[in-house]
Amino acid sequence: MELEKYELGGTYYKEKDLKDGKLLSLDWKPKLQYAWDDGVAIGRYLAELKKGNIIARKCNKCGRIMIPPRMFCELCWRPTDEWVDCKDTGRISTYSICYVNWDASRIKKGEKPHLPAVIEIDGASPGMGIMHILGEVDPEDVKIGMKVKAVWKKPAEREGSITDILYFKPARR
Amino acid sequence: MLEKVAIAGLGFTEFNSVSPGSSYRELTYEAAVKAYEEVGIEPKDVDSFVCTSEDFLEGYSISDEYCNDQLGAVLKSGQTIPGDFIHSLSVGVMHILTGLFDIVVVQALSKASNMKTIPEMVNFAFDPVLTRPLDITSYFTAGLEMNRYLAEERATREQCAAVVVKNKANALINPVAAYGADVTIEQVVDSEPIAEPVRLLDIAPYADGAVVLVLCSEKTAGSLTEKPVWIKGVGWSTDAPSLESRDWTEGIATRLAGDMAYKMAGITCPAKDIDVAEVNDEISFKELQHLEALRLFDEGDAGKATEDGKTALGGMLPVNPSGGGLGMGHLFECSGAAKVVELVQQLRGEAGPRQVPDACIGLAQAWRGIPSTSAAVAVLSAD
Amino acid sequence: MAYQKVAIVGAGITKFVRRAQETGKELAFQASKMALDSCGMTLKDVDCVSLGTAPDAFDGVHMKGEYLSDGSGGWRKPYMRQFVGGGTGVFAPIHGWLHVASGMFDTCLVVCSEKMSSCYPHPQGAFITIFDHTTEQALNPTLIWIFALEMNRFMSAYGISKEDIAQVSVKNKKNAMDHPSAQLPMDITVEDVMNSETLAWPVNRLDISPASDGAAAIVLASEHTAKRITDKPVWIDGVGWNLDTAYWATRDLAYPRYVEKAARMAYDMAGITEPKREIEIAEPYDPFDYKELHHMEGLLLADRGKAVEMTVDGVTQRDGDRPICPSGGALGVGNPIAATGLMKVIEIFLQLRGEAGPRQVPGTPHCGLAQAWGDLMQVGTVVVLRS
Amino acid sequence: MGMTERINRNVDLSYWEGDIPVNYVYTYGLGLEAFFRKLKDQGRFLASRCESCGVVYLPARIFCERCLAEIEGTFQVPGTGTVYAFTVVHKNMDESSKKEPVIVALIDMDETDSRMVHYLTGVKPEDVKVGMPVKAVLKKKKERRGHIEDIVGFKPV
After folding, report:
1. Residue C105 distance to chain D (closest CA, Å)
2. Superfamily of domain C6-119+210-386, CATH level 4
3. Which CATH architecture has domain D22-156?
4. What is the ipTM of this complex?
5. B139 touches chain D (CB under 8 A)
6. Which residues on B lie below 8 Å from A78 (Cβ)?
7. pTM
8. Which residues in chain A have their CB less than 8 angstroms from residue B116's CB?
9. 3-class DSSP state for residue A49?
């Protein structure tokens, strides 16, 4: 068989064809809502963020201090042993300079690009990072390996969320 | 003749109406620890993992991402089935039958209590153009099907209610069941109408829980357990998904899945050979319809048999001794898992007050629930 | 060997388009019907059906596997959906292989369908729900973030330039000009890629494959059945899959160790000890241009950090020593996630049969592989095929 | 070994809320496009027959789910049928109770092998019988937009 010898399915249409009524279409906004149980590890993680702390969980067998915390060590297959207070500083493991929003729309004119990064948190094991965003820094000044520090919301505004940290900014030496 | 596959290890949590103390990860971890410890293995001993997960039930896209850590399945062969646990169990069987996998772990989880808009979600499963815009709350398909079942005089309204009475009573003596109760036929028949003839007590209420099983090949079974339960046959099938062209009376997918499993298990007379059955009872009458589809009773006989106590504990063919969905709760993709859990306990002789004497061959059946037309069946044996 | 040998005996595919008028069911039907026709079979000859399709959030139907069952030929058959995120398309033949290799079935229709265009305002939006709902989604991440983060890590770990990576996009979009399903066939230059809109540095618009609608299907058969159906069966000689931790930010993104594990599993099964020599042609997953390189390294087809040199030197061109993505890949043919993986399998199937038409690589190869990747930088799926 | 720590004060329990934040625009596909165009423009019901196995589908389709044959061509059917099953629905989508229950029926459509789900109108729940003949009630032409609700419901003949 050769693909070239077949009439292939798949009929392209332009988005405009829907607006013009050339094709029938139906809009739907689903209501799929959840309240996910935080459980032990993430519940405590969020509660500590509200207090302005970043915590991790340690496995005494492999010695890894894991963030986000978990009640089990997925590598040693045993319960983790203790809570560990991390610092609110870390090191950029990788980053991006992003001009699009979550839904692929473009950021507004004049809006600064988003700076998502993986940040290895001080006090957790090397390589243990979380995804967050960078602030108070020009995109061209961001470097892999750069030391950063969390900028927190005011205590009264915190709600037990990863966004209680507004962003990470370059740490002053 | 295909090689035999064993269920060696069994781990499960309680099935509760809510489970706020544990995240979905922690709930699965609890079941996995129990299953692995029972057979003395660690994840490194496992050759492959089969998880059960359906995106919108978990509230994730690509929900298989979040299945493996809590099983210790990091950098292992893991796959996910958006189906019932018994579908996943069947995949686990296929893994072992290839001869390339010796120990396989199968998992399912329900966090039904975390879903705030279940009727909206079920409506989201209907055809987006033909059915969904009618905006009819989800139990209407069950109402239609039960109406037809009654109209064809396959059972009486009271016989359907008798299923509820039996299953909730069985759940009272099942320590992990959430919805045990001592109800009467009148209470069921007079309960709040939802989509008549379906009433509130006809419906299996939602529940949370997790199940992990350890499967292995025949040659390995002896080293893992003294009480292997053998998977003799598995089967699965799907009817047309469209309301317009699907079957509305026979439970045809269950019939075909059952026939496939019976053939694999070498069972020619199911009504005689099966000692105990755990079948889907998400809506009261479905238990009767499924028993008939599985050839455990002739068409139109299951209702009478239930009324006469033949499917009760101590009856000729105990059905849903666990309490079923009506007594344990509707666990979505974990529903079939709860049924397999009960059978494994029955066939090991560990079912306590629910023990069916001399239970040797058991059948578990799952239907994927409204509005699905998919079913899966497993035939298990003590020897 | 306990398992039955399994062959691919037929294939079907639709065009890949940004928006298809057909429903997902209809696309699945078009591909399935073509696959059956291609080997002179009818639905009656099919023992079981395996469906692969990526998240329900694309098509916008809960329990999408149920919804797509009729178009996929699942009516009253043993029909099951499998799902490993972006790895689904190459897991599809593996899942089908399980059905037949286990001895439970003789023939299996494997179908992958995706209708991403239903999702508004853009299919990309659906991907926010792949991130951890509690610890990540609150940051409003886009899918491109993780690719950009991984690409940056990959570039900095090995000192690779964006210009060199862009050559992958140039090659694949050009290859796609010969693929009848192709959505984005283009004759472009590295400058065009570099000058295209920066979406999330280091990712530019032309570094990315498009969102697509489309379907693909193949027919599998056991050894004795395959020989009755065709005199050119293509054998599934190795399968491998592997899943890494979901805590993706806690591991080094520079190297896809899960792809290596999946590849080693497939190579062991196929008896391949020197993949660089023995794998003559490959279709690694290329949703972003750097991913092709990343995956070539994970597949052990290139040393770490060296895949880019093979690309720059032209080794991976269709007429090079080691053709990579001769189909045009996801970058050129389009990326209806699950269907893309199966499209890659079909390309290898056709290449090994010498039936790839204008895309045929010189010297008709005998051994090739297809690979897909998915989830949170997490999953690798690999099949090794031989004629 | 299981987890060594659990939540043991209910005030420490917490959950995180979220949703699936995307919208959808569905095309009708090749089969339903033809059906709903005809319904909208002419108030007619369009069916299609599989030439290889004889099954008649309503609404019209482009493929046969039973044999995967391609179906070409369509024809009109009357839009009448009989009640195959019905249910009296008391709940809204948000699980609240309806002020007045509604009747939803599965209609065996004449001259086809298909059934349609829709509302029954102009009849009380106690008067509905399985087997009862019914016919479709359509919105006026200018109000029709190619939508399942162009059919108001089915009423007894």
Report:
1. 19
2. Thiolase/Chalcone synthase (3.40.47.10)
3. Beta Barrel (2.40)
4. 0.97
5. yes
6. none
7. 0.97
8. 33-35
9. helix
